[in-house]
UniProtKB/TrEMBL annotation:
Annotated CDD domains: cytidine_deaminase
Organism: Aurantiacibacter sediminis
Name of the protein in question: Cytidine deaminase
Residues spanning the membrane: none
Family membership noted in the UniProt record: Belongs to the cytidine and deoxycytidylate deaminase family.
Enzyme Commission numbers on file: 3.5.4.5
The protein's enzyme class: hydrolase
Length: 139
């Protein structure tokens, strides 16, 4: 259910570690059976070691139910500082698109992607095939 997925991603977002950018993101990955794995971005003083919320959630999903069973990914993000304006729906970065494409290739299915603003009110519904056409793969 989308509202459940949104609630879990919102909760995960609040556990992000992003002291450098102040931009916190949560992601919830849903399996074909309705199981959910979550993640949030985790930055590091050594900037290049930072991990996106989607990658973090996909790692948890692999452990929980396997990448080949991923059906849907919901991403929610925005400035941690609530006095800052929200920035509209947050879409996965190029690297995360490639990571989601890996899961899609394993299952042979397209994966739905729901991109939300910080409040979860403004949403863009798309898919990995739409966000990353001609993805790099073993094929
Ligand atoms: Zn990313």
């Amino acid at each position: 259910m989308v509202s459940d997925l949104l609630a879990k991603a919102k909760e995960a977002r609040l556990r992000a570690h992003a002291p450098y950018s102040g931009f916190i993101v949560g992601a919830a990955v849903e399996s074909v059976d309705g199981e959910v794995a979550v993640g949030a971005n985790m930055e590091n003083a050594c900037y290049r070691l930072g991990v996106c919320a989607e990658q973090s959630a996909l790692t948890a999903a692999q452990q929980a139910f396997g990448l080949e069973n991923v059906a849907r990914v919901l991403v929610i993000g925005g400035p941690a500082d609530e006095s800052q304006p929200s920035v509209g729906p947050v879409t996965p970065c190029g690297g995360c698109r490639q990571a989601i494409a890996e899961a899609a290739q394993l299952s042979g299915r397209n994966i739905e992607i729901l991109c939300c603003d910080r409040e979860g009110e403004e949403t863009l519904t798309t898919s990995i095939a739409e966000l990353l056409p001609s993805a790099f793969s073993l094929d």
